[in-house]
Amino acid sequence: MANAWKQRCALRGRRIELETGQRKMTGICREIDADGALVVQTVDNVERFFGGVVAGNRESER
Description:
The chain has about 60 residues and is mainly beta. The chain is built from 1 helix and 5 strands.
């Protein structure tokens, strides 16, 4: 199942804006991992998110 998520992730390689509660952040979507988390490369590190709203996305380098 995890491979199917990775293959169908429309956000992979795109710059996204993610809202999680009161936190807003931007980064590059890297993948959906085996646990179902959205993996995002931020300026400082790689973070995993299990919930939130993608407020916008733009093409980025893949």
